[in-house]
Q: What sequence folds into this?
């Protein structure tokens, strides 16, 4: 039997400027995302192109970030299982979203660019191959309807 996990967040819209949603420009897109036990809320908005606040996180960035985080956590788990000692990990994740001309749209792809630092050279080749297994184990990547590509780099610690 598989375990079922539930997650709960609270969203509070902060954008009522006195007129509510009387028209498209009458309201702000600012909001706060919180969860029980979290010390810091996420201050969000829409993307600037959709009249949002560029200083706040937008849902599109959060989706790309969730894919990057999930892959990293899956990768570290897989590396541990295979005896690969990772001493550093960074990623520069990019995503592409296309509008459909009807007011909606969808992501067409996300590409992760993880840079993994391993403890010694004997682990580098195996470390490079483990991204495929990590991708299979990433819950978030398994939940999206677009491809998540990986362009990893593996380097050996000094």
A:
């Amino acid at each position: 039997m598989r375990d079922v996990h539930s997650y709960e967040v609270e969203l509070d819209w902060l954008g009522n400027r006195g007129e509510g949603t009387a028209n498209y420009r009458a309201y702000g897109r600012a909001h706060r995302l919180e969860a029980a036990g979290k010390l810091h809320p996420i201050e969000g908005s829409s993307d600037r192109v959709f009249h949002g606040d560029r200083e706040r996180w937008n849902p599109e960035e959060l989706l790309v970030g969730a894919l990057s985080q999930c892959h990293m956590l899956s990768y570290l788990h897989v590396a541990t299982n295979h005896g690969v000692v990772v001493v550093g990990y960074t990623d520069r994740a990019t995503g592409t979203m296309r509008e459909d001309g009807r007011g909606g749209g969808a992501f067409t792809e996300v590409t992760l660019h993880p840079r993994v630092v391993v403890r010694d050279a004997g682990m580098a080749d195996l470390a490079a191959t483990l991204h495929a297994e990590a991708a299979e184990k990433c819950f978030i990547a398994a939940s999206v309807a677009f491809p998540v590509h990986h362009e990893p780099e593996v380097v050996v610690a000094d």
In short: The mean pLDDT is 94. Strands lie at 10-13, 31-34, 42-44, 86-90, 94-99, 105-112, 115-118, 148-150, 153-156. The longest helix spans residues 59-81. The CA atoms of residues 44 and 62 lie 9 Å apart.
